[in-house]
Design brief:
The chain has 497 residues and is α+β, with helices and mostly antiparallel strands. The chain contains six helices and 26 strands. The strands form seven sheets. It has a six-stranded antiparallel beta sheet with strand order 2-21-25-24-23-22. A six-stranded antiparallel β-barrel has the order 3-15-19-17-16-20.
Length: 497
C-alpha cells in the first residue's frame, strides 16, 4: 500500500472516531442526534469501538516484562533431627529464627552471605554427638584388639600348642615302643632260661606280664595321638576360630556403629553450616514474601524446613515474558523475530526470537480477559544493570496487511474455539452476539475477514453475565447503519483498543 493510501486510511478512521466522540458527548449532555434512538443507560453501560478500515503493519506489539531464565529458589535447608544420649533424647525441630538478612534487591556475588539463622540447637547436638563418636571410637578400638587377640589364639594353638602336643605324643609312643622292645627281649631271655631250667616258671610269667603291659601302653599312646589329631586338636581349633569370628562380628558392628555416628555428626555439622545461607551464584536478591500466608522475610521471624526464603535470578541469563491476547496467540509462531524495548532503560534496544508459548492461559480477572505467556530469548548479552521485572515492549515481526476491517483485540471473545463479537444493533437498543472470522493481528488490532461491516459498533471487554440481559433472542442479519456513539479516543490505533 502506498503512503497516500495509508494516510487516507488513517484519516478515515480518525473521522469515524471524531463522529463517535461528538455523538457520545451529545448523548451525555442530554442531546439526541437525528436517527438515534438508543437509551442512554445502554450506551453508557458499555465501552464501544467502531469497526473501521486500517493498515495492519507487519508487526505486532505487546507488553511483557524482563525475567531471568535461570532463577534459583533458596530454601531453608534445616531438618528435624533427634539423637539419643545416655538414655535421653535430644532434638532440633527443623525451624529456627532468622537473625540477619541482606536487603531486598541487593546484588550479590557467589559465596556471599545472604542470611544467618540461629544455630544454637544444632550446635548443642553437635557437641553431644561428638562425645558419642568418641565413645564409639573407643568401643571400636576395643573390638579391634579383641579380634586381634582371638586371631592370635588360633595361630598360637595351630602353630604352637598343637604341634608341641603332637611331639609329646610322639615321645610317649617312642618310649612305649622302647619299653615294648626291652620287655620282648627280657621275655625271650626268660623263655630260653626256663627251657634250660635256670629260671623258675614264675619269672617267666612276670616277664610275660611286663611285656603285655608295655604293649598295652604302646597301643594307648598311639590311640591318644590319634584322638588328639582327629578330635581334640580339631575341636580346639574350631572353638578358637569361632571365638575369633565372634570378635570379628563385634568389630563389624562397631564399624557400622562408628560409621553411623560419624555420618550423623556430619549431618549435624552440615545443619550448622546451613544456618549460614550463601549465594550459589551471582545474582539479584528477591525476598520470597507470601502475602497470602502473612509471610514477610525480615530478621526475627521463624523459618521452617523447606520454606522459600529468596529468589536469586541470574543476571547473565535474561529473557522476556510477552503477554499474548487469546485472539492473537495462534498467529504467533516459534522462532518469530522480535525487537525489545525496556521502559526503565529507553536507550537499550534488544533483539530476540520467540522460544515457546504457554499452552494454558492466565486470566486478567478485572476484565475477564485471557492472555498466554510467550517466552522471547534475547540474542545479545544483557547489561548487568537491567533488573528482572522491568516492563518491556515487544514488537514481533509479522506480515503486513492493508485496507482491512479491524477491531480492537479487546472486542473479541473466544468460546469453544470460535471467535465472537458483541455488536450494537440498529437503533442501539439491543446487542447481537455475532461469530466472526479473523485474519491478521497486532497487539492492538485484529483483522475481521467475515462477520462485521465497516461502521458497526462492538463492545470492548464484554462479560457474558453482563451482556446476557441485553442480547436479542433471535440475532438479526447485520444491516449497515450509522453506529451509536463511542467513547472518544486519541488516535486510530487507540480507537480500536
Amino acid at each position: 500500500m502506498s503512503a497516500t493510501r495509508k494516510i487516507r486510511s488513517s484519516w478515515m478512521t480518525a473521522a469515524i472516531i471524531a463522529a463517535a466522540g461528538i455523538s457520545y458527548w451529545a448523548y451525555g449532555n442530554g442531546c439526541r442526534l437525528p436517527g438515534r434512538g438508543a437509551p442512554r443507560d445502554l450506551v453508557r453501560k458499555y465501552r464501544l469501538a467502531p469497526v473501521g478500515r486500517t493498515v495492519l503493519e507487519g508487526s505486532m506489539t505487546t507488553q511483557g516484562h524482563l525475567e531471568s531464565s535461570k532463577r534459583t529458589v533458596i530454601d531453608c535447608e534445616l531438618q528435624r533431627i533427634g539423637i539419643g544420649v545416655a538414655g535421653r533424647g535430644l532434638a532440633a525441630g527443623g525451624s529456627t529464627t532468622l537473625l540477619t538478612v541482606v536487603p531486598d534487591g541487593a546484588r550479590v556475588k557467589a559465596g556471599e552471605v545472604l542470611a544467618t539463622l540461629d544455630s544454637s540447637d544444632y550446635e548443642e547436638l553437635v557437641r553431644q554427638q561428638t562425645m558419642t563418636v568418641e565413645r564409639s571410637r573407643a568401643d571400636h578400638r576395643r573390638a579391634e584388639l579383641d579380634f586381634e587377640v582371638a586371631t592370635m589364639a588360633v595361630d598360637e594353638y595351630r602353630d604352637g600348642t598343637m604341634k608341641e602336643a603332637l611331639k609329646d605324643h610322639e615321645r610317649l609312643i617312642a618310649l612305649a615302643e622302647s619299653e615294648v622292645s626291652r620287655s620282648r627281649d627280657r621275655l625271650d631271655w626268660a623263655t630260653r632260661m626256663q627251657d634250660k631250667g635256670y629260671v623258675s616258671l614264675s619269672v617267666l610269667k612276670t616277664e610275660t606280664q611286663n611285656f603285655d603291659k608295655a604293649d598295652v601302653a604302646l597301643k594307648k599312646a598311639r590311640g591318644d595321638r590319634h584322638v588328639f589329631e582327629q578330635f581334640t586338636a580339631r575341636k580346639m581349633i574350631r572353638q578358637l576360630e569361632g571365638a575369633a569370628r565372634s570378635k570379628q562380628s563385634q568389630l563389624r558392628y562397631q564399624d557400622v556403629n562408628l560409621a553411623r555416628n560419624l555420618e550423623r555428626l556430619a549431618t549435624l555439622e552440615k545443619q550448622v553450616a546451613n544456618c549460614t545461607i550463601r549465594a550459589p551464584h551471582d545474582g539479584y536478591v528477591i525476598y520470597a514474601n507470601d502475602p497470602r500466608h502473612s509471610i514477610v522475610i525480615e530478621p526475627g521471624i521463624t523459618v521452617r524446613q523447606k520454606q522459600h526464603l529468596f529468589y536469586l535470578p541470574d543476571l547473565e541469563h535474561m529473557e522476556v515474558v510477552a503477554m499474548l491476547h487469546e485472539s492473537v496467540v495462534d498467529r504467533v509462531k516459534k522462532g518469530m523475530r522480535a525487537r525489545i524495548a525496556l521502559e526503565g532503560a529507553p536507550d537499550v534496544s534488544l533483539s530476540g526470537r520467540v522460544r515457546s508459548i504457554a499452552p494454558l492461559p492466565i486470566m486478567e480477572w478485572r476484565h475477564d480477559v485471557r492472555y498466554f505467556e510467550g517466552i522471547v530469548t534475547i540474542d545479545e548479552a544483557v547489561d548487568r544493570e537491567l533488573m528482572p521485572g522491568m516492563t518491556a515492549r515487544i514488537e514481533l515481526s509479522m506480515p503486513s496487511a492493508s485496507d482491512v476491517l479491524a477491531v480492537p483485540v479487546e472486542a473479541v471473545t473466544t468460546e469453544q474455539g470460535a471467535e465472537y463479537c458483541y455488536v450494537m444493533r440498529r437503533g442501539g437498543e439491543r446487542l447481537e452476539k455475532r461469530r466472526i472470522e479473523s485474519g491478521q493481528a497486532t497487539h492492538d488490532l485484529l483483522e475481521v475477514a467475515r462477520g462485521l461491516e465497516e461502521g458497526e459498533q462492538v463492545v470492548l471487554n464484554p462479560r457474558v453475565d453482563e451482556v446476557a440481559d441485553d442480547l436479542d433472542e433471535q440475532p438479526a442479519v447485520a444491516e449497515p447503519s450509522e453506529p451509536p456513539a463511542a467513547v472518544p479516543l486519541e488516535s486510530p490505533v487507540a480507537a480500536l483498543r
